[in-house]
Design a protein that fits this description.
Blueprint: H1 2-7, E1 11-15, E2 19-24, H2 31-35, E3 47-50, H3 56-65, E4 73-76, E5 97-104, H4 115-129, E6 136-139, E7 143-146, E8 149-160, E9 165-175, H5 192-196, H6 202-223, H7 230-236, E10 243-247, E11 252-260, E12 266-270, E13 275-278, E14 284-287
Parallel strand pairs: 3-4
Antiparallel strand pairs: 1-2, 4-5, 5-9, 6-7, 7-8, 8-9, 10-11, 10-14, 11-12, 12-13
Helix pairs in contact: 4-6
The structure holds biotinyl-5-AMP.
Length: 293
């Protein structure tokens, strides 16, 4: 066992007739590390860890189809085909980030599934703000930004009937100890390490997100809307009271983001003073000065 642990990167000293002393615990993603002292009820009771995989969301959907339990967590050290929204790709280099997916089977109407993205975002931003000196904000609906650059993205996918959800997968991708970014995202992406000037262990961040997400999830499933979390959400949302550019396939509009509704929509007042309900998925929200507010 000691040999195996050393091979995984743990620094262990052997002391004759006494035993072993753990000197350094590396940033290893393992089921045991993640479950250690994780006092959740259903989230991450089952965990699958991969060295490398195409996409944890893709694999999550496959496992969900095969019957994986609610709360199953997939975590990878690297993704070859990380996915963003609407066919975009997500850079997921080895060992530097958190690439994870939760399989959920919520008893809610399919039209409420997109609210799970907001809850995951809130759990993530709160976890980060307990650990970093800068402030992380949610950029509605699915980005987490630090100093105006994207540190994390969330992708929620679902399989459903008209009025029944088979399963939802919530994928969270975070640049943690990344120092070099692909040229295509250099301008927009950042990592915790770049912004904070130090590296982070990934497991405590994963644990924080899972614990908080479960708490918000339970509140949400009971009430059926976001009423209970709106105040927390708006406090952490960078769009609120800001000028935003709303871009759909056919149209573009500049306005001020006013608030989030209990159903998770963004209310934007246009320059003529008229309020619009903006639903995620249909549009892209940008700050006026550059890509991310
Ligand atoms: C997202 O999409 O932000 C959702 C990202 C979800 C990734 C997780 S990782 C675990 C799970 N498994 C998956 O396969 N996916 C999920 P979107 O808002 O569409 O943003 C995508 C855009 O962000 C790209 O077009 C790039 O411009 C940019 N981007 C790509 N990789 C990035 C990275 N590592 N960091 C910051 N920005 C990135």
């Amino acid at each position: 066992v000691i040999k195996q642990l050393k091979a995984e990167g743990y620094a262990i000293e052997s002391v004759q007739n006494k035993g072993y002393c753990l000197l350094v615990s590396p940033d290893v993603l393992s089921k045991e590390e993640i479950q250690y002292k994780l006092d959740t009820v259903t989230f991450a009771k089952n965990i699958k860890v991969y060295n490398a995989i195409d996409s944890t969301n893709q694999e999550g959907k496959k496992l969900a189809l095969e019957g994986a339990k609610h709360g199953t967590l997939l975590v990878a050290d690297q993704q070859f085909k990380g996915k963003g929204r609407r066919g975009k790709s997500w850079e997921s280099p080895p060992k530097t980030g958190i690439w994870m997916t939760l399989i959920l089977r919520p008893d809610i109407h399919p039209n409420k599934a997109s609210m799970l993205t907001l809850l995951a975002g809130l759990a993530t931003v709160q976890t980060l703000n307990e650990k970093i000196n800068n402030t992380a904000y949610i950029k509605w609906p699915n980005d987490i930004v630090v100093n105006g650059k994207k540190v994390c993205g969330i992708l929620t996918e679902m399989s459903a009937e008209l009025d029944f959800i088979n399963y939802v997968v919530v994928g969270i991708g975070m640049n943690v100890n990344t120092f070099e970014f692909d040229a295509s995202i250099q301008e927009v992406a950042t990592s915790l390490a770049v912004e904070e000037g130090k590296t982070f262990e990934r497991v405590p961040i994963i644990q924080g997100i899972i614990k908080k997400f479960e708490k918000y999830y339970e509140l949400f499933v009971k009430s059926g809307d976001l009423e209970n979390v709106l105040k927390d959400y708006e406090k952490n949302c960078i769009n609120i009271s800001k000028e935003v550019r709303i871009i759909s396939n056919t149209d573009e509009m500049i306005g001020t983001a006013l608030r989030i509704t209990p159903s998770g929509e963004l209310i934007v007042k246009d320059q003529q003073g008229q309020e619009h309900i903006i639903r995620s998925g249909e549009i892209s929200v940008r700050g006026l000065n550059g890509k991310y507010i």
